[in-house]
Design goal:
Chain A: InterPro entries: Protohaem_IX_farnesylTrfase, UbiA_prenyltransferase, UbiA_prenylTrfase_CS, UbiA_sf. Chain A: Pfam families: UbiA (PF01040). Chain A: It is a multi-pass membrane protein. The structure holds two protein chains of two kinds. Chain A is mainly alpha-helical. Chain A folds into two domains: about 1-170, UbiA prenyltransferase (Tetracycline Repressor, domain 2, Orthogonal Bundle); about 170-310. Helix content of chain A is about 75%, strand content about 0%. In chain A, helix 2 runs parallel beside helix 8 and helix 3 (about 50-75) packs parallel to helix 6 (about 120-140). Chain A is flat, with a radius of gyration of 21 Å. Chain B is mainly α. The radius of gyration of chain B is 23 Å and the shape is rod-shaped. Classes of the chains: A mainly alpha, B mainly alpha. The interface of A and B includes residues 3, 16, 18, 51 and 116 of A.
């Protein structure tokens, strides 16, 4: 390439390494890594530390690959929504074809490596997770039904089950409850976000619940899901991955979460506009802490178990 | 003295190439580590099986 050609406007948008990394949705990946790690460490049985590291890396790469494929498919609506306009494809730094190639390559790589490092059940589970997020959620449900986030949330809930499967080669009540915890947490978490990012999804034509059924219906749904979530979260405290630390954490966090959901449920649009969605934003912030502390408590139980302090 | 000034794009390309080199290097280390762990742990399991027989 001649030096003259590098001064054209299109060329100044050439991607850096960080732009390719951004395709993997690092923030989502951090949640995947953390929950998969907890699932792996809480599972009964032993695994070599290096194999455990490779397993978590593969789950993270698989999650990142599905993020890249999601960005490839959703580039049109990402360009419309303020929250996603700066992503690598809509900003012109990475082409759709490059994102697709990276997504497919990393998907195959992560699944094969996980199979070789641990077992093929866990690898198949990871492949299914990628398929679920890309095909079932991104391509099918997201633009079709207001329940998109409910069913699609399953994709984000699978990592602890994959981590568990990497050690045990199967599923159990505990790993299913970890799945259900994230599965039931996702709707209130996202619907709270939708309540204060209300125009974004409407502009993009994504049928989020607040767009199709209105904000009062969204508030009702947040409350119902929060109550169901509390039952699952507290119930998990009585299984082998629970213990006094987990149960105390779950009781406090679910009480706070239910109070937050009731506050949202009792509000109307005028009240939301008046304080610029203060309650909804606080609930959204609490939801991030909620998930982190629940899995953190499981991790604490695992870490303290050798000293006779964790678990029942 | 350099005959021309580097454009910002040159720095970006260098960063990208360096990043890719590090990723490939990490992949080699990963495969090597995994091979060592698998071979040694399977070797140990085989030795234990033979001792039991």
């Amino acid at each position: 390439m001649s030096d003259a050609s590098i001064h054209t406007p299109a060329q100044t948008k050439e991607a850096s390494f960080g732009d390719f990394f951004a395709l993997l949705k690092p923030r989502v990946m951090s949640l995947v890594v953390f929950t998969a790690m907890v699932g792996l460490l809480a599972a009964p049985g032993s695994i070599h530390p290096f194999v455990a590291f490779v397993a978590i890396l593969c789950i993270a790469i698989g999650g990142g690959a599905s993020g890249a494929l999601n960005m490839w498919y959703d580039a049109d609506i990402d360009a419309i929504m303020t929250r996603t306009q700066s992503r690598p494809i809509p900003s012109g730094k990475v082409t759709g074809d490059e994102a697709f190639a990276i997504g497919i390559t990393l998907s195959v790589f992560s699944v094969v490596m996980l199979g070789l490092a641990t077992n093929w059940f866990a690898a198949g589970f990871l492949a299914f997770t990628i398929f679920f997020y890309v095909v079932i959620y991104t391509m099918w449900l997201k633009r079709w039904t207001p329940q998109n986030i409910v069913i699609g949330g399953a994709a984000g809930a699978f990592p602890p089950m994959v981590g568990w499967a990497a050690v045990t080669g199967g599923v159990s009540v505990e790993s299913t409850l970890m799945f259900l915890l994230i599965f039931m947490w996702t709707p209130p978490h996202f619907w709270a976000l939708c309540l204060f990012m209300k125009t974004d999804y409407r502009d993009a034509g994504v049928p989020m619940l607040n767009v199709t059924h209105g904000r009062p219906a969204t508030r009702n749904h947040i409350l119902v899901y929060t109550l169901l979530l509390a039952a699952i979260a507290i119930g998990m405290g009585f299984t082998s991955v629970g213990g006094p630390i987990y149960l105390a954490t779950a009781l406090v966090l679910n009480a706070l979460f239910i109070v937050g959901a009731i506050r949202i449920w009792r509000r109307d649009d005028a009240a939301c506009e008046a304080d610029e969605h203060k309650v909804e934003k606080r609930f959204f912030g609490l939801s991030l802490l909620y998930l982190f502390l629940h899995f953190g408590a499981i991790l604490a139980e695992v870490a303290l178990a050798p000293y006779g302090l964790g678990g029942w | 003295m350099a005959i021309h000034k580097d454009h910002e794009i040159h720095h970006r390309r260098f960063g990208r190439n360096l990043g890719l080199a590090l990723v490939l290097g990490a992949f080699v280390v990963l495969l090597m580590g995994l091979t060592v762990v698998k071979v040694t742990s399977e070797g140990r399991a085989l030795a234990a099986q033979e001792a039991n027989q």
